[in-house]
Amino acid sequence: MLDVHEWEAELSESLEPFLDALGHKARQLIMWLFITSFSDCDSIKR
């Protein structure tokens, strides 16, 4: 099982092209927070 740092690194690598397409740093941050919030909710339910 991946630890937190490993999955964050993997997710960052996977999302890089999509976040780059957003262009604006604030939009990139909001999208990153939105996506990572799903994983946080999932871990709380278990």
From TrEMBL:
It comes from the Bacteria. This is Uncharacterized protein.
